[in-house]
Amino acid sequence: MGLTFNPEVWQINHLELTVRLTLAIVLGGLIGLERELGGHHAGFRTHILVCLGSAAIMLLSMYGFSEYAAEPNVRMDPARLAAQVISGIGFLGAGTIVRTGLTISGLTTAASLWVVAAIGLSVGAGFYYGASISTFLVVVSLFFLNKVEKNFSHAKKDRQITFVLHRKTSSLQHIVTSLNKSGIKIYKLTIENEEAAEGSAQPLIIKMDVKLKKTKAFDEALLKLAGIEGVIRLKTAGDVL
Asked: What does the record list as coiled-coil region(s) (predicted)?
């Protein structure tokens, strides 16, 4: 018994089309709002556009070629354009990743754009529940788990040390060695003014985020660091977030 062709499968009315595109704006906007409030590079409008564009491409892939569906040699593949969105969104995510000195930021925003593209495709395909629950979980991950992560950082006794150093010394190497001997782990190092002209008398400003095991060991390490040749001054801040 042969399969019968149903042309209505490849058609969508204007109301349903409007609902899907509008929902894409709402869901993408919810995730973009969290990024916007956090002051990130890709915020409210960017996430809306990515989600809306993904939904539009999914709708195009599913319903845009319905007039050719009945042709004998035509094979409809709704997932073809969707696959290109998932791989192509990488260029936009890469634009949000910023390198400043030795610090890299924007990875979470890049990931959120990738997820928003997937949510847009889901809405475009009419997978409403999957899109909605995905949006909820992303917002929870970005907003609420961010607070949990900060509290977790408190428990790890994170600290930030800012050094002002003479440029023509090897004090940075001595600082790293001293911290390692004290059992203090450096997990982020930022050179704020490394672009200064070579031979400039301007001091080098370096920020280090470190993890402690014992507070007393940190106090002892600071005394040693202050005595290293080339260290003009240093200051610390507790509970780096």
From this structure: none
Quote the tokens at residue 96: 């949000």
Domain CATH code at residue 189: 3.30.70.60
Residue 118 burial (CB count, 10 A) = 19
Structural contact between residues 11 and 58, judged by C-beta atoms closer than 8 angstroms: no
* Each residue's pLDDT tens digit, 8-23: 667 788 898 899 999 9
Asked, for residue 2, whether it belongs to a domain, the answer is no
Q: Which of 153, 174, 196 is the last residue of a domain?
A: 153
Domain count, the chain: 2
**pLDDT tens per residue across span 148-170:** 666 655 555 677 888 888 877 77
Asked whether residue 92 carries a pLDDT value surpassing 80, the answer given is no
The dihedral of CA 231, 235, 236, 241: what is its sign?
A: negative
Helix (H) or strand (E) holding 45: helix 44-63
Write phi, then psi, for 103 (nearest 5 degrees): -105, 135
Which structural domain, as residue segments, surrounds residue 131?
8-153
> What tens digit of pLDDT does each residue of 187-209 get?
888 887 766 545 566 788 888 88
Length of the chain as a residue count: 241
